[in-house]
Amino acid sequence: MLELRIKGRDFERPVLGDIFTQIRRGDRICLLGPSGIGKTTLLNAIAGLDRRTPATAFRGRETLRLGYLFQEHRLLPWRTLGQNLAIVGAAGTEIDRLLESVGLTGYQHHFPDQLSLGMARRAALARCLAVEPDLLLLDEPFASLDPVRAGELRTLISELLDAHPHMGMLCVTHDASDATALANRLWYLDGHPAHLQWDAPVASDVETIVQSLRTSMPLL
Ligand SMILES: Nc1ncnc2c1ncn2[C@@H]1O[C@H](COP(=O)(O)OP(=O)(O)OP(=O)(O)O)[C@@H](O)[C@H]1O
Prior knowledge:
This protein is α/β, with parallel strands linked by helices. The chain has helices at residues 39-47, 81-87, 93-101, 117-130, 147-163, 176-182, 206-216; strands spanning 2-6, 9-10, 14-16, 19-23, 28-32, 55-59, 62-63, 66-69, 135-139, 168-172, 185-190, 195-201.
């Protein structure tokens, strides 16, 4: 069980309210919400990237390992893919294995600008996996990809999660169908400041979904 405690964040106005929630081991959560509501702000807080948003993410007394796939790939452009992975601690055959796991076998000596957007995103995903994360944070991983490439990446992420059942996922998306494909739990962020308005399991049958919504949103 991962516990998240996030102290709210103001920019010129209050953006994110205080949030306290829990993520079970292996939970696959899709985070939806209106544009500009604070989804990236929440991910940054969880990742500890925003010094002005006190947040703790912990598992018992252990330090939580996080992998963060940003909206941009943020690979070092002057380093090859192999070197980008080496920076986070991968070495030797581990680099080959990581690249193979994201379908980039043979690209170890390529530079990021020699890759398509989808390939660069998969390389960044390999970098996330190198730290063997407890929780994978994905910020709109399918944005700007054509439907075929987006579908391939969705399948890849789903297979990686299956292969690492203890790894949780928190994925920001604007597409509810991503939730059906990837998630077992949905969060909906809304309000000023934003809170988790809705935390419900993804269910395959309509009756269960309606019941979940009624439970999570009593006003319905
Ligand atoms: N560094 C910053 N300085 C000032 N305002 C910021 C900063 N970062 C975010 N904001 C503001 O906080 C709000 C939430 O931004 P955030 O990027 O978290 O939203 P989002 O839900 O991820 O949006 P989108 O779905 O469009 O990516 C926005 O109004 C944004 O303008």
